[in-house]
Design a protein that fits this description.
The protein is an alpha+beta fold. The chain is built from eight helices and nine strands. It has a four-stranded antiparallel beta sheet. A hairpin with a 5-residue loop joins strand 3 and strand 4. It is elongated, with a radius of gyration of 21 Å.
Protein backbone atom coordinates (compact mmCIF):
# COMPACT_ATOMS: atom_id res chain seq x y z
CA UNK A 1 0.00 0.00 0.00
CA UNK A 2 1.12 3.55 -0.53
CA UNK A 3 0.52 6.39 1.83
CA UNK A 4 -0.08 9.61 -0.08
CA UNK A 5 0.24 13.01 1.53
CA UNK A 6 2.47 14.85 -0.93
CA UNK A 7 -0.37 15.22 -3.53
CA UNK A 8 -2.42 16.94 -0.81
CA UNK A 9 0.41 19.36 -0.10
CA UNK A 10 0.94 20.07 -3.80
CA UNK A 11 -2.75 20.80 -4.27
CA UNK A 12 -3.06 23.11 -1.27
CA UNK A 13 0.14 25.02 -1.85
CA UNK A 14 -1.19 26.11 -5.26
CA UNK A 15 -4.31 27.67 -3.81
CA UNK A 16 -3.86 30.02 -0.87
CA UNK A 17 -2.40 30.11 2.63
CA UNK A 18 -4.04 27.33 4.62
CA UNK A 19 -4.08 26.84 8.36
CA UNK A 20 -5.70 23.90 10.11
CA UNK A 21 -5.87 22.97 13.80
CA UNK A 22 -3.01 20.55 14.49
CA UNK A 23 -3.62 17.10 15.98
CA UNK A 24 -1.03 15.15 17.91
CA UNK A 25 -0.49 12.13 20.16
CA UNK A 26 0.30 12.60 23.84
CA UNK A 27 0.99 9.49 25.99
CA UNK A 28 -0.65 7.23 23.43
CA UNK A 29 -3.77 9.36 23.05
CA UNK A 30 -4.75 11.37 20.00
CA UNK A 31 -6.20 14.84 20.37
CA UNK A 32 -5.95 18.49 19.36
CA UNK A 33 -2.49 20.05 19.75
CA UNK A 34 -3.54 23.06 21.79
CA UNK A 35 -2.54 26.42 20.35
CA UNK A 36 -0.84 24.83 17.33
CA UNK A 37 -1.73 24.90 13.64
CA UNK A 38 -0.57 23.15 10.53
CA UNK A 39 0.35 25.99 8.19
CA UNK A 40 0.73 25.61 4.43
CA UNK A 41 1.80 28.82 2.77
CA UNK A 42 0.90 29.40 -0.85
CA UNK A 43 3.86 28.76 -3.11
CA UNK A 44 6.53 26.96 -1.11
CA UNK A 45 6.15 23.19 -1.18
CA UNK A 46 6.48 22.71 2.54
CA UNK A 47 4.35 22.34 5.65
CA UNK A 48 4.92 24.06 8.99
CA UNK A 49 3.73 23.87 12.54
CA UNK A 50 3.05 27.24 14.08
CA UNK A 51 2.08 28.26 17.58
CA UNK A 52 0.25 31.23 18.94
CA UNK A 53 2.61 33.49 20.86
CA UNK A 54 0.21 35.87 22.54
CA UNK A 55 -2.58 37.88 20.98
CA UNK A 56 -3.01 37.07 17.32
CA UNK A 57 0.69 36.51 16.62
CA UNK A 58 1.83 33.16 15.27
CA UNK A 59 5.33 31.78 15.15
CA UNK A 60 6.54 28.94 12.95
CA UNK A 61 8.31 26.35 15.12
CA UNK A 62 9.07 23.55 12.63
CA UNK A 63 8.89 23.06 8.86
CA UNK A 64 9.20 19.96 6.67
CA UNK A 65 9.98 20.10 2.96
CA UNK A 66 8.31 18.20 0.11
CA UNK A 67 11.46 16.04 -0.15
CA UNK A 68 11.19 15.13 3.52
CA UNK A 69 7.47 14.36 3.17
CA UNK A 70 8.21 12.07 0.22
CA UNK A 71 10.90 10.30 2.31
CA UNK A 72 8.32 9.82 5.07
CA UNK A 73 5.90 8.27 2.55
CA UNK A 74 8.60 5.89 1.30
CA UNK A 75 9.77 4.87 4.78
CA UNK A 76 6.22 4.04 5.81
CA UNK A 77 5.04 2.29 2.65
CA UNK A 78 8.20 0.56 1.43
CA UNK A 79 8.59 -1.26 4.75
CA UNK A 80 4.96 -2.25 5.32
CA UNK A 81 3.13 -5.42 4.27
CA UNK A 82 -0.31 -5.32 2.79
CA UNK A 83 -2.51 -5.16 5.86
CA UNK A 84 -3.14 -8.60 7.33
CA UNK A 85 -0.40 -10.27 5.28
CA UNK A 86 2.33 -9.78 7.88
CA UNK A 87 4.22 -12.99 7.01
CA UNK A 88 5.18 -11.24 3.77
CA UNK A 89 7.65 -9.21 5.88
CA UNK A 90 10.02 -12.18 5.41
CA UNK A 91 10.43 -11.02 1.77
CA UNK A 92 11.81 -7.61 2.79
CA UNK A 93 15.61 -7.47 2.45
CA UNK A 94 16.01 -5.09 5.38
CA UNK A 95 14.09 -7.51 7.64
CA UNK A 96 16.11 -10.49 6.35
CA UNK A 97 19.36 -8.70 7.16
CA UNK A 98 18.32 -7.51 10.59
CA UNK A 99 17.08 -10.96 11.71
CA UNK A 100 19.79 -12.99 9.93
CA UNK A 101 17.47 -14.88 7.62
CA UNK A 102 19.84 -17.26 5.78
CA UNK A 103 20.02 -20.66 4.14
CA UNK A 104 21.16 -23.15 6.79
CA UNK A 105 21.15 -26.93 7.09
CA UNK A 106 18.69 -28.35 9.64
CA UNK A 107 18.87 -31.94 10.86
CA UNK A 108 15.91 -34.21 10.14
CA UNK A 109 15.43 -37.95 10.75
CA UNK A 110 12.80 -40.18 9.19
CA UNK A 111 10.42 -42.49 11.06
CA UNK A 112 13.10 -45.18 11.24
CA UNK A 113 15.44 -42.68 12.91
CA UNK A 114 17.63 -42.52 9.82
CA UNK A 115 19.24 -39.18 8.99
CA UNK A 116 17.65 -37.47 6.00
CA UNK A 117 20.35 -36.22 3.59
CA UNK A 118 21.05 -32.58 4.58
CA UNK A 119 19.85 -29.78 2.32
CA UNK A 120 20.26 -26.09 3.11
CA UNK A 121 16.95 -24.20 3.37
CA UNK A 122 15.85 -20.66 4.33
CA UNK A 123 15.87 -20.32 8.11
CA UNK A 124 15.62 -17.59 10.72
CA UNK A 125 16.49 -17.65 14.44
CA UNK A 126 13.85 -16.88 17.06
CA UNK A 127 14.64 -13.35 18.27
CA UNK A 128 14.20 -14.38 21.92
CA UNK A 129 15.72 -17.82 22.44
CA UNK A 130 17.80 -18.10 19.25
CA UNK A 131 16.58 -21.48 18.04
CA UNK A 132 17.04 -21.69 14.27
CA UNK A 133 13.86 -22.71 12.44
CA UNK A 134 12.76 -23.12 8.82
CA UNK A 135 10.52 -20.23 7.78
CA UNK A 136 7.36 -22.35 7.83
CA UNK A 137 7.96 -23.04 11.55
CA UNK A 138 8.55 -19.45 12.64
CA UNK A 139 5.80 -17.13 13.83
CA UNK A 140 5.73 -13.38 13.19
CA UNK A 141 5.06 -11.39 16.33
CA UNK A 142 3.53 -7.90 16.36
CA UNK A 143 5.71 -6.10 18.90
CA UNK A 144 2.98 -3.61 19.71
CA UNK A 145 -0.08 -5.78 19.87
CA UNK A 146 -3.10 -6.40 17.72
CA UNK A 147 -5.55 -6.29 20.63
CA UNK A 148 -4.81 -2.85 21.93
CA UNK A 149 -4.29 0.78 21.19
CA UNK A 150 -3.72 1.22 17.45
CA UNK A 151 -1.59 4.31 18.16
CA UNK A 152 1.12 2.24 19.87
CA UNK A 153 2.47 0.70 16.64
CA UNK A 154 2.14 4.13 15.01
CA UNK A 155 4.27 5.72 17.76
CA UNK A 156 6.80 2.90 17.46
CA UNK A 157 7.27 3.57 13.74
CA UNK A 158 7.31 7.37 14.27
CA UNK A 159 9.93 6.88 17.00
CA UNK A 160 12.21 5.14 14.50
CA UNK A 161 12.15 8.39 12.45
CA UNK A 162 12.86 10.83 15.30
CA UNK A 163 9.22 11.97 15.48
CA UNK A 164 8.57 11.32 19.20
CA UNK A 165 9.93 13.12 22.27
CA UNK A 166 12.08 10.16 23.31
CA UNK A 167 13.82 8.03 20.72
CA UNK A 168 14.27 4.26 20.47
CA UNK A 169 16.62 2.69 23.04
CA UNK A 170 17.62 -0.48 21.22
CA UNK A 171 17.08 -2.91 18.38
CA UNK A 172 15.59 -2.06 15.01
CA UNK A 173 14.37 1.38 16.06
CA UNK A 174 17.84 2.50 17.11
CA UNK A 175 19.32 1.02 13.95
CA UNK A 176 16.72 2.74 11.75
CA UNK A 177 16.65 6.16 13.38
CA UNK A 178 20.29 6.79 12.46
CA UNK A 179 19.25 6.87 8.77
CA UNK A 180 15.58 7.78 8.77
CA UNK A 181 15.66 10.78 11.13
CA UNK A 182 17.80 12.80 8.73
CA UNK A 183 15.63 11.89 5.74
CA UNK A 184 12.35 13.08 7.25
CA UNK A 185 13.70 16.01 9.30
CA UNK A 186 13.10 14.26 12.65
CA UNK A 187 14.44 15.69 15.90
CA UNK A 188 17.09 14.53 18.35
CA UNK A 189 15.92 12.27 21.16
CA UNK A 190 15.21 14.06 24.45
CA UNK A 191 16.36 10.99 26.42
CA UNK A 192 13.97 11.49 29.30
CA UNK A 193 13.76 7.68 29.52
CA UNK A 194 10.06 7.54 30.17
CA UNK A 195 7.51 5.46 28.32
CA UNK A 196 5.18 8.45 28.06
CA UNK A 197 7.85 10.40 26.15
CA UNK A 198 8.17 7.50 23.70
CA UNK A 199 4.43 7.66 23.04
CA UNK A 200 4.25 11.44 22.64
CA UNK A 201 4.91 13.11 19.27
CA UNK A 202 7.35 15.99 18.95
CA UNK A 203 6.58 19.04 16.78
CA UNK A 204 7.77 17.43 13.53
CA UNK A 205 5.82 14.27 14.36
CA UNK A 206 2.76 16.47 14.87
CA UNK A 207 3.19 17.93 11.36
CA UNK A 208 3.23 14.46 9.76
CA UNK A 209 0.36 13.16 11.90
CA UNK A 210 -1.80 16.19 11.07
CA UNK A 211 -0.91 15.94 7.37
CA UNK A 212 -1.92 12.26 7.27
CA UNK A 213 -5.22 13.04 8.96
CA UNK A 214 -5.92 16.08 6.76
CA UNK A 215 -5.09 14.10 3.59
CA UNK A 216 -7.52 11.30 4.64
CA UNK A 217 -4.65 8.86 5.05
CA UNK A 218 -5.21 8.01 8.72
CA UNK A 219 -6.51 4.47 8.08
CA UNK A 220 -3.67 3.76 5.69
CA UNK A 221 -1.15 5.06 8.21
CA UNK A 222 -2.56 2.86 10.99
CA UNK A 223 -2.52 -0.24 8.76
CA UNK A 224 0.99 0.37 7.48
CA UNK A 225 2.43 0.99 10.96
CA UNK A 226 0.79 -2.14 12.34
CA UNK A 227 2.25 -4.41 9.65
CA UNK A 228 5.54 -2.49 9.39
CA UNK A 229 9.11 -3.77 9.52
CA UNK A 230 9.58 -1.90 12.79
CA UNK A 231 6.66 -3.74 14.45
CA UNK A 232 7.31 -7.34 13.25
CA UNK A 233 9.84 -9.83 14.60
CA UNK A 234 10.39 -13.60 14.32
CA UNK A 235 9.62 -15.77 17.37
CA UNK A 236 9.35 -19.52 17.82
CA UNK A 237 5.99 -20.92 18.94
CA UNK A 238 7.21 -21.37 22.52
CA UNK A 239 8.37 -17.75 22.87
CA UNK A 240 5.33 -16.27 21.10
CA UNK A 241 2.82 -16.66 23.90
CA UNK A 242 -0.68 -15.18 23.82
CA UNK A 243 -0.88 -11.78 25.49
CA UNK A 244 2.89 -11.51 25.66
CA UNK A 245 2.76 -7.92 24.34
CA UNK A 246 0.23 -6.26 26.60
CA UNK A 247 -1.00 -2.85 25.50
CA UNK A 248 0.54 0.03 27.43
CA UNK A 249 -2.27 2.52 26.98
CA UNK A 250 -6.04 2.13 26.84
CA UNK A 251 -7.58 1.80 23.43
CA UNK A 252 -7.94 5.06 21.57
CA UNK A 253 -11.45 6.36 22.49
CA UNK A 254 -12.10 7.80 19.04
CA UNK A 255 -10.73 4.78 17.22
CA UNK A 256 -11.40 5.37 13.56
CA UNK A 257 -10.89 1.87 12.25
CA UNK A 258 -10.96 -1.37 14.19
CA UNK A 259 -7.92 -3.51 13.48
CA UNK A 260 -8.81 -6.72 11.72
CA UNK A 261 -12.01 -5.31 10.27
ZN1 LIG B 1 12.07 -18.80 20.94
Amino acid sequence: MTIQISPYLRRLSRLYDVSKPAVSIVTGRSGPADGAQLFIKKGPLNASLRRQVGGSKWQIVQTVSLTQIQAFERIISDHACNFGDHRAIMDLDKWKDFYHLEDRTISYVDKANQAVPPVAEPTVPCYDCGIVLPLKNITIDHQRPQAGNELEPLCKVFRAMGLTIDGPAKGKGLDAVATWRGQVGGLACQATNTRDAKYTLNDVGTIYYTLCDAASQYGELINDCFDHYINLRPLCGACNKPNRNASYYPEHPNKKRALGS
